[in-house]
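Our collaborator T.R. sent over the components below with a one-line note: 'Predict the complex.' Nothing else. No constraints on interfaces, no templates requested, no preferences about which chain binds where. So this is a plain run: every listed entity goes in together, and whatever single assembly comes back becomes the starting point for the next discussion.
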Amino acid sequence: MDFAAQFEDYRQRVERGLNELLPAAHTRPTRLHEAMRYSLQAGGKRLRPVLTLATAEAFGAAPEIALPAAVAIECIHTYSLIHDDLPCMDNDDLRRGRPTAHRQFDEATALLAGDALLTYAFQLIGGHYAGNAKLCATLTREIADAAGSEKLIGGQMEDLLAEKNASATADDLEFIHLNKTAAMLTVSLIAGGLCGNANPTQLAALRSAGRQLGLAFQIIDDILDATADTVTLGKTAGKDARADKTTYVKLHGLENSRRFASEQSAAAIASLRTLPGNPSFLIALVEDMARRTH
Ligand code: GRG
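Returned assembly:
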């Protein structure tokens, strides 16, 4: 199977998993469950859950074992997008090519749908890995750590603070990217590794790859915001410059940002090459991401 077909195969597993593992839309209260599914099923790239399934498989585990963890991570990612779009944060109207959750429903429903997706992620982990107490505890700890106040939420907090601070530094920007973006990508790899019984050295290689992939991903996001159009992106383009936001492009310029993104992608590939088994799909995914246009 070539890369595109393999990605599509993983993506479809994720779509089926999301559909089967989330409460049905008609579950009471229907408005809440409809909003959770609306945002989840709006068709993101599914990068994080695909990373989890592919990493598990690279370590010889069946992707089904990693599916609840992959779905849990996509639930957390989607909650963070819903909350990020709210009027009190980024105040955005468009996400994944559709009206944002608070536009489609209302602010309170969007807030609750985000809360519910975050909570449901841990309900899924607790329910599906109960038969393997060590795996259940480690997945819970790793995912909670990545989504918590020192990583995803901490990165978002500093991002909001940096918007009001014209003298935010390259160090501030790295903190934001490592925590807001790289932490969830890293835990996607780690969750797959844990499901595939990766040893501590292999987990360390996955952590390095996640950090490098996350930095490359975020720099490319900054470049796309500055260079792509809203229709291609499926979200409002050019927002960073209009808000005079501190980004890689603002601090280092387009050319240096492009160079830094390719250096980080190359470093992520080098980290993945140290893994046993067959990390070729993961390597192709990093290469593909480096070329992404949305
Ligand atoms: C509200 C706690 C909290 C966190 C919000 C996700 C987020 C943090 C902010 C969104 C803005 C942003 C640029 C975040 C960096 C991570 C990122 C690029 C997310 C978008 O991920 P994609 O491109 O989205 O994988 P899809 O829609 O494809 O899943």
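Summary for T.R.: The two ends are 24 Å apart (CA to CA).
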